[in-house]
Each structure stands twice: as C-alpha cells, then as structure tokens.
Amino acid sequence: MRVTRSVIPNLFTLANLFCGVSAIVAAFEGRITDAIWLVVTAGVFDALDGVVARLTRSTSEFGVELDSLCDTVSFGVAPTILLYVTYPESWQHTQWTLVVAAFPALAGVLRLARFNVQLTSMEDKLYFRGMPIPAGAFTIISYIAIWHDQVPQQWQPHALAAVSIITSLAMVSTIKYDNLPRPSVKAFRKRPIVFSVFFVGTILCAVTKLAALFPFMMLYLVGGALRHAFVFLRDRSDRDDSFDEGDPDPFTI
C-alpha cells in the first residue's frame, strides 16, 4: 500500500469516528458528561481534517465520503443514543421514544447523502442547504448538558422530543445556513458580521463551559430560518412586481 499525504487528514477524520464510538459507549454506561465532551472533541477533529486537507492539498472525493461516514456515527448516532438514554426509564420502554430519538440519525444520514450528491467542487461553501449535521449534534448535546435539568420534570420528555424534531427538520430542510468561517483575515474581510458572530459565540461557549452553546445554536437555527423566509418573501415580491409591470393593459390605446 502506497502512503500518501492524504493519510494525514484521514487520520483526523478517523479520530472523529473514534470519539463518536467512544461517546456511544460512554452514553450506554451512563457517563453522559463524558459522552457529551467526546462529541465536542469529534467536532474539533471534524473541523481540523478539512483544514489539514487544504494545507496538504490532499482534498479528494474519498476524503469527502470518509468524512460523511464518520459524521454519521459521531453527529448522527451518538446524539440519538444520548437523547434516548436521557429520557426517563419509564419512557424508554415505549416505541415512540426510540422513534423520536432516532430522528437526528435519520435526518443526518439524509442530509449527508444529499450533500454528497450535490457536491460539485472541493472549495469551501459559504452556505449549506439544511443545517449541517455537526451543528445539529451540538444543538442536541448542549441542551442535554446544561438546559435539560432546568425544565420542569413533567415537561422534560416533551422538551427532548421538541429538540429532536426541530433539529431534524432543520437538517433536512432547504434553508441556507452559514458555513463556519475559516480563521483568516481573508474570511473576516469577506464576511465580517458572520465571522464576528461565530468568533464571539466560540469564546462565550469556551468561557461558560458550553452553557452558551445551546442559545448560540438556537440563534443559528432560528436566524437561518428567518433569513430564508425574508429572502423568499422579498423574491416573491420582486416577481410579483415584475409580472405587474410586464402585463400590458388591453384597454390602453
């Protein structure tokens, strides 16, 4: 077997997968906090493999497919397991609990398959169609880590279901979500507002030990949906105006 420089980013991708598998094991063993931090670590490796691939100029279709397979485990299956084990034990014996908990994994797989089919180049995209699966995973684990215990006990199962369903719908939607900007002067000059929001959000998440992550992810989710709605209504209004202007009045001589 010939060893090439593409091995380096692939090692980061496989480290992502290892963290995902470890998170699943930790969740089943009841080590929820460990599982959550393992998913976060998987996200770090997922970000680094793309950076390393560009630095070594070793981006490839193989790397894209490998990344998607690993993301399925780390950001699809692992959050699903975390959702399931977080439910009260009395709820875990109902079939609907498993179905609802499985939504992020099912939606994540569909999201990744659509992304791979629509991929036309190896260049960074400014936007993604549908919320990226790592963002969906971070939304779920950040809710479980901090905010779940703040919900009244009788509403906790329903809150888990709401987070699962809303996140899954965002992933399979056609809403445009911003890509994570690269830490560079060029990226800042290109999209200063987006860069600043992501930078401040990252700092707040680190300082608050993930307490700010769920509000930030909800801002990302809702903000993308509101922008999509605004652009849709604006374009529809422009089409209606152009139609009215181009329709001659048959009674005008």
Topology:
Elements: H1 7-28, H2 32-55, H3 61-86, H4 95-118, E1 127-129, H5 133-147, H6 156-172, E2 176-178, H7 185-190, H8 192-207, H9 213-246
Antiparallel strand pairs: 1-2
Number of strands: 2
Per CATH, what is the topology? Four Helix Bundle (Hemerythrin (Met), subunit A)
CATH superfamily: CDP-alcohol phosphotransferase transmembrane (TM) domain
| Spatial extent as radius of gyration | 21 Å
At CATH's second level, what is the architecture?
Answer: Up-down Bundle
Class inferred from helices and paired strands: mainly alpha
- Counting DSSP H or I runs of 4 or more residues, the number of helices is 9
Distance between the termini: 81 Å
Fraction in helix: over 70%
Q: Per the principal axes of the C-alpha atoms, what is the gross shape?
A: globular
Averaged pLDDT: 85
In the CATH scheme, the class would be Mainly Alpha
- Strand line-up in the sheet with most strands: 1-2
Give the biggest sheet. Answer: 2 strands, antiparallel
Which spans have pLDDT < 50 for at least 5 consecutive residues?
A: 247-253
Number of domains: 1
Written account of the structure:
The protein is an all-alpha fold. It has one domain (7-236): Four Helix Bundle (Hemerythrin (Met), subunit A), CATH 1.20.120.1760. It has helices spanning 7-28, 32-55, 61-86, 95-118, 133-147, 156-172, 185-190, 192-207, 213-246, and strands at 127-129, 176-178.
